[in-house]
Automatic annotation (TrEMBL), chain A:
Gene Ontology CC entries for this record: plasma membrane
Xref: InterPro entries: MetI-like, MetI-like_sf, UgpAE/MalFG_permease
Location(s) in or outside the cell: Cell membrane
Coiled coil: none
Protein name: ABC transporter permease
Region span, Disordered: 1-22
Similarity comment: Belongs to the binding-protein-dependent transport system permease family.
GO biological process, one term: transmembrane transport
Residues spanning the membrane: 46-69, 112-134, 146-167, 194-218, 247-267, 302-324
Topology of the protein relative to the lipid bilayer: Multi-pass membrane protein
Biased composition (Low complexity): 12-22
Main location class: membrane
Keywords, comma-separated and alphabetical: Cell membrane, Membrane, Transmembrane, Transmembrane helix, Transport
Automatic annotation (TrEMBL), chain B:
Keyword Signal carried by entry: yes
Keyword line: Cell membrane, Lipoprotein, Membrane, Palmitate, Signal
Species classification: Bacteria, Bacillati, Actinomycetota, Actinomycetes, Bifidobacteriales
Organism of origin: Bifidobacterium goeldii
Name of the protein in its database record: Extracellular solute-binding protein
PANTHER family in alphabetical order: ARABINOSE-BINDING PROTEIN-RELATED, POLYGALACTURONAN_RHAMNOGALACTURONAN-BINDING PROTEIN YTCQ
Secretion signal span: 1-19
Length: 335, 437
């Protein structure tokens, strides 16, 4: 039963490091009497959760309900539009059909999906490698290294995208010029490459924070397991491969989950790069398409439907990732 | 406990996602602070006004001094905020008077969020240039007062044309010939840049040729942006320049663009009246090397394009449209106000009175002592104004950028870009429930 030791406490990765360490009883106490929790009806717990529930309802649930409601309506006008007024009519699922028939909106999902399939593994892989390196006994100046890797996270994504934008533009980029001087012509902003230029910005921004989450997971692994492994003759690589990676799997899956969600919501980086290249189109990502339809075309009902579709697709993907994670955990628990 | 913890994570993550995404669209329905006109028993009227012209506060203060009974309170907003005005009007939180870009304005007229102010302003028609009056007139009625205007002229590198012994082009044929000669004389020099993100530099040539995005016969909208009669020649010319490698393809306003301008790779910039000052700011070292000439035309002597500007409109929330109309008419056509807007706001007015003011037309050291606005004023007075402002023009210009990007990638021609954009515009208008052919 590895469940207790593998509890990496992914909800509060940075704050829980020390407390998790002190909890490190490698084996659960066998045969401890099971206590049934007793519930008494006091108002205290409700008062404690009230602030959260209130804010959650007002700022999360209510807007969701409004958006879902809006998505079933449409505004009708007539003639040239200058006379006759406008009516809001029930439209059934017609907004959803319009959204599904919007070729560019659907393409944007394929685009972020492709982005996710390639960028997320690279980013999480890098985060894992950095976390393992900093956690290993091989690296010196650990704190400095950790801060350097984490630093880009403190730069707002928009600022990071503007900065990288400079490095992508052929006329001003030292990278493009440098490569040209050795005979290599690159274009970071062509239709084929711009998505990966966006991915580069995203990776640069988020590697650090993912590393910290994974690193916190590594910190919670009890040292005696390493000792046991070393006695059995395992080297650093073996320990990393056979102990560390499996034991930080919950943290790893959490970062994957968050990255997938972030990928579908991709907005800031491509929006900024849009100003330097037309190859980031108006509906480049689902979130950009929603904003385009809502504010540019002024069609809030269609925008609401598209947002709901985006949310549902995100939900499904999140559930799939969670299901894979649990299946893997169960399989391991059995073995 | 482990599984419970994960379930919570999962539920929180999932619901957070849904909420965050859904809020993107729903937040538009929230209300923000705004004013509404109030009037006290003494007959004093208070109006609220939002816009983004620099230093317009000074003009408003002047009005308030002179009109104690019609007090205007100005709130500065960023120009992007104009996209929220429609929602604010629905929510009852919009100001009485709003500044709107002329291309984004028609959607408000169609959604009946601004008032028909014809009865108060129709007599001022002759105070404004025709092309500006055209953009506030829908179905024969006026829904706003034109604020500024964007007649087009050509900035050119006088020194380069002299150096290579090339005449400054007056007609489009001469322009294409000059493009070839310049590029032959120096392969680093291009007659102009082609920027898909600045689609208006292409569309303004269509305006000049008498084209427009839309027209209407009074019953239906008609998409005319791919009308061969007006656009074929323009599309062919751009195609010839592009295929000949005579245009430097790059996005406008980027560091790369300004770097090329400063390096002398761009020989002409055909753009509206607000551009010279930006050129001066972004390429200060080129002082004395630029001059301004009329845009080339088929005849060699106009007509010219007007890319337009902003309008001031009275929202449906305003309870005192007569006073509001009086104020915006004064603001945009009285010489006293125009002086402030021109010299401190950098505005090129839509009112003819502004064209006689010394403030508008001063010799510029940067342009070698030339009175730059002489050229722009002459252009403003000789604008072809056919076609109409209509719904979904913001959509059309956004998609035009995407279509021109495909041109720049060699995936389609300029003519195809116009056809595709026309189809998108037509669909957008239809989806509003309007009649379109």
């Amino acid at each position: 039963m590895t469940a207790t030791t593998r509890l990496a406490n992914p909800e509060s990765p940075s704050g829980s490091v020390s407390s998790v360490k002190s909890f490190n009883t490698a084996k659960p106490i066998q045969g401890a009497p099971e206590r049934k929790p007793r519930y008494r009806s006091t108002p205290a717990p409700y008062l404690f959760v009230a602030p959260f529930v209130l804010l959650f309802v007002v700022f999360m649930l209510a807007p969701m309900v409004v958006a879902i409601y809006q998505s079933f309506f449409t505004v009708k006008r007539s003639g040239l539009g200058f006379t006759g007024g406008r009516q809001t009519l029930f439209a059934g699922i017609s907004n959803y059909l319009t959204a599904f028939h919007d070729h560019e909106f659907m393409t944007s999902f394929l685009r972020v999906l492709m982005f996710g399939v390639i960028q997320v593994p690279i980013m999480i892989g890098l985060s894992l490698v950095f976390a393992l390196l900093i956690d290993s006994t091989l690296v010196k100046f650990k704190k400095t290294a950790q801060i350097i890797v984490f630093l880009p996270y403190s730069v707002p994504v928009v600022v990071a995208a503007i900065m990288w934008g400079f490095l992508y533009q052929p006329g001003v980029s030292p990278i493009v010029k440098g490569l040209k001087s050795i005979g290599v012509t690159v274009s970071f902003l062509s239709p084929q490459t711009v998505l990966w230029s966006v991915g580069n910005v995203t990776t640069w921004c988020w590697v650090g924070v993912n590393m910290v989450i994974i690193f916190a997971g590594l910190q919670s692994i009890p040292q005696d397991i390493y000792e046991a492994a070393r006695i059995d003759g395992a080297g650093e690589f073996r320990i990393a491969w056979s102990i560390k990676i499996p034991m930080v799997m919950p943290s790893l899956m959490l970062t994957v989950l968050f990255s997938i969600i972030g990928t579908i919501q991709l907005f800031n980086e491509p929006s900024v790069l849009q100003s330097i290249t037309g190859n980031v189109t108006a509906k480049y990502t689902p979130a950009m398409a929603v904003v385009n339809v809502t504010s540019q075309q002024n069609n809030q009902n269609l925008g609401a439907a598209m947002a709901v579709i985006t949310a549902l697709i995100t939900l499904v993907l999140s559930l799939i990732v969670s299901a894979i994670q649990q299946a893997a955990a169960k399989k391991e628990a059995r073995s | 406990m482990r599984f419970a913890a994960h379930r919570i994570t999962r539920v929180l993550a999932a619901s957070g996602v849904v909420a965050a995404l859904v809020m993107t669209s729903a937040c538009g329905t929230g209300s923000s602070t705004g004013g509404s006109s109030t009037s006290d028993s003494g007959g004093k009227v208070e109006l609220t006004f939002s816009g983004w012209v620099p230093n317009i506060e000074k003009a408003v203060d002047l009005w308030n001094q002179k009109n104690p009974n019609i007090q205007v309170k100005f709130t500065r907003v960023a120009s992007d905020a104009q996209l929220n005005f429609g929602t604010q009007i629905d929510a009852g939180s919009a100001p009485d008077i709003i500044q709107m870009d002329q291309y984004k304005f028609p959607n408000l007229v169609i959604d009946q969020q601004v008032q028909d102010i014809s009865q108060y302003v129709k007599d001022t028609k002759s105070d404004f240039i025709d092309s500006a009056w055209n953009v506030v007139t829908y179905g024969g009625n006026q829904y706003a007062v034109p604020q500024d205007s964007g007649p087009v002229a050509m900035m050119y590198r006088k020194d380069l044309f002299e150096q290579y012994g090339i005449e400054v082009p007056k007609t489009w044929d001469e322009y294409v010939a000059a493009a070839k000669k310049l590029h032959e004389a120096n392969p680093d020099v291009y007659i102009a840049q082609f920027s898909p993100n600045e689609e208006e530099m292409f569309v303004q040539d269509i305006y000049q040729a008498g084209g427009s995005y839309l027209d209407s016969d009074g019953e239906k909208w008609k998409v005319t942006i791919n009308d061969k009669k007006t656009t074929a020649k323009v599309a062919e010319r751009w195609q010839e320049l592009f295929d000949g490698g005579l245009l430097k393809t790059e996005q406008m306003w980027t560091p790369e663009y300004w770097s090329d301008v400063n390096a002398g790779k761009i020989a002409t910039i055909i753009r509206a009246s607000w551009f010279p000052v930006l050129l001066q700011e972004n390429a200060p070292d080129l002082s004395g090397k630029w001059a301004v000439a009329p845009t080339p035309s088929d005849s060699g002597d106009g007509p010219y394009a007007n890319t337009g500007g902003s309008v001031d409109a009275v929202t449906t929330l305003c309870k005192h449209p007569a006073e509001a109309a009086k104020f915006i008419t004064w603001l945009n056509s009285d010489p006293e106000s125009l002086k402030i807007l021109i010299s401190e706001g950098g505005l090129f007015p839509a009112a003819k009175a502004g064209y006689d003011l010394d403030e508008l037309n001063q010799a510029s050291d940067y342009f070698g002592g030339q009175k730059v606005n002489d050229v722009y004023i002459a252009a403003a007075k000789n604008v072809i104004s056919k076609g109409k402002m209509g719904p979904e023009l913001a959509t059309a210009s956004t998609s035009m950028r995407d279509e021109l990007t495909k041109v720049s990638n060699g995936e389609q021609t300029f003519a195809q870009a116009l056809d595709n954009d026309a189809a998108i515009l037509k669909k957008a208008i239809k989806s509003k429930g309007l009649e379109v052919e």
